[in-house]
Amino acid sequence: MRYWNNRSNSRLTALIGLGLLAFAVLAETEIYKWVDEEGNVHYSDCAPPPTCDAETIQAEPEPDPLEVRKAQERLERMLAEQEVSKAEREQETLERERQRVAAMKIAVARKQICIRARQNLHVLQVQRPVYYIDENGKYVYLDDETRLSEIARMMKLIDQNCQPISE
């Protein structure tokens, strides 16, 4: 029996050696590229027909696992940087939108002040008695001096709020 075990071990060793040799041969396999009569490009690990003018392409060796890991780490770092950059761009867009909304609110408020000031100015310039109702519910009429100061105040508001905003 011992003889059989030694023999099977040597057979196993021979098979492993042949497998390694076959793997080495496959790793060094040449790839051929050629164009047939119809203009079609062919790639093959088998030799082309003798009538074809073939070009030998060297296969790339398998990358080193350390290099693969480094490339993966670089890719992950780049993806993380891209996510951060995307978040920053979204934040900037959001901030620009907030600024735009704030500017629109200011423009609307200015327009309301402008309209109200023009209406009040028109009322003040008409030669009729002008009054307002105080906190006690009583009518208080404007005298000429107050009317003139209110006209000046309304004109100032119109100048400040009815002109286009200079950027």
Notes on the structure:
The protein is mainly alpha-helical and 167 residues long. It has a domain at 30-59. The protein is built from 3 helices and 5 strands; from the N terminus they run αβββαββα. It has helices at 2-27, 65-125, 144-161, and strands at residues 31-35, 41-44, 55-57, 131-133, 139-141. Strand 4 (131-133) and strand 5 (139-141) form a beta hairpin. It is rod-shaped. It starts with a helix and ends in a 6-residue tail after the last helix. Residues 1-7 and 18-25 have low confidence and may be disordered.
Secondary-structure blueprint:
Elements lengths: L1 H26 L3 E5 L5 E4 L10 E3 L7 H61 L5 E3 L5 E3 L2 H18 L6
Antiparallel strand pairs: 1-2, 1-3, 4-5
Helix pairs in contact: 2-3
Search tags:
single chain, 167 residues, mainly alpha, two-stranded antiparallel sheet, 3 helices, 63% helix, disordered N terminus
Strand content: 5-15%
Largest sheet: 3 strands, antiparallel
**Which ranges are low-confidence, i.e. pLDDT below 50, for 5 or more consecutive residues?**
1-7, 18-25
Q: How many β-strand stretches?
A: 5
| Separate helix tally | 3
What is the typical, i.e. mean, pLDDT? 82
Kindly provide the radius of gyration, computed on alpha-carbon positions and rounded to a whole number of angstroms.
Answer: 45 Å
Q: How far apart are the first and last residues' alpha carbons, in Å? A: 101 Å
Spatial ordering of strands, largest sheet = 2-1-3
Summarize the helix and strand pattern as letters: HEEEHEEH
Judging from the principal axes of the Cα atoms, what is the shape? rod-shaped
Report the structural category.
Answer: mainly alpha
Helix content: 55-70%
